[in-house]
């Protein structure tokens, strides 16, 4: 039996290998299909003690397609390639973030 290396992982899906663009698109489609509002955030670290990530632009209130969100993810990747980038889904009824997952890790890791 093989055990996982000892490291902290706290984000949704963090125990899986990095998601492909197709897998990211499916997760974003889920966010949209649930009526959640997608947003993109970035930060230099992914430490669980860092509660505040920087918001990339405003939440994508009017996003209707997966491609719109993916275009913003790519724009954030190109500008902040040395940062962690995650997609979050906000529930406008509960007024809170209901899910998040990392879509980009810096190449140093």
Automatic annotation (TrEMBL):
Family: Belongs to the RuBisCO small chain family.
Assembly, per entry: Heterohexadecamer of 8 large and 8 small subunits.
UniProt record, GO biological process: photorespiration; reductive pentose-phosphate cycle
Localization (cell): Bacterial microcompartment; Carboxysome
Function, as annotated: RuBisCO catalyzes two reactions: the carboxylation of D-ribulose 1,5-bisphosphate, the primary event in carbon dioxide fixation, as well as the oxidative fragmentation of the pentose substrate in the photorespiration process. Both reactions occur simultaneously and in competition at the same active site. Although the small subunit is not catalytic it is essential for maximal activity.
Record key words, sorted: Bacterial microcompartment, Calvin cycle, Carbon dioxide fixation, Carboxysome, Photorespiration, Photosynthesis
A GO molecular-function annotation: ribulose-bisphosphate carboxylase activity
Domain Ribulose bisphosphate carboxylase small subunit: 9-106
Domain of life: Bacteria
Location, primary (coarse class): other
Designated name of the protein: Ribulose bisphosphate carboxylase small subunit
InterPro entries: RuBisCO_ssu, RuBisCO_ssu_dom, RuBisCO_ssu_sf
